[in-house]
Amino acid sequence: MPFEEVTNRPELRLGTGKDAAMAEKDADLEKIKKLIEIMKQNGLVEVEIKHGDDKIFLKRSQPQAPQVGITAVPIIGSTESVVGPAGAEQAEAPGGPSSPRSAEDLVEIKSPIVGTFYATPSPDSEPYVELGAQVEPQTVVCVVEAMKVMNEIKAETIGAIAEILVTNGQAVEYGQVLFRVRPD
Asked: What gap in Å lies between CA 182 and CA 184, rounded to an integer?
């Protein structure tokens, strides 16, 4: 093969194959770094990308906030035990002495999105609402953070807060009951 033909074909140049492979690996590494940054910016824990035969799965660890106490909320009509912040077990019967009106008379305020529940606008602020607080349809009762966006949750009813079912900083699901309101 003549020399000019070898030098005009990139795959036959000396050292070019290794250099090209290294450049491709560097580019792939940069793409992975960018994906990790996007994951951090959007609060993603894991991501999987498939493109043809190529596939990448990235998973980052989540920093766990220290838990002061774990509270299990009983399901309506359940007589199961509840573990309170002090760790003591309590049996709670439906319609017990803590609720003079039955839960069926109460209006539920549910989370419209998956996210993190916050009872206060900032860590050193007073809560939006407390037990017994009067609310109106436009009263902000909490915020739910989803993908670094704070979403104000409004009461959408008139009455008094009868129950607060979640704690500050708790992860909530779509449709999860956050508050129960005794209508006026």
From this structure: 7
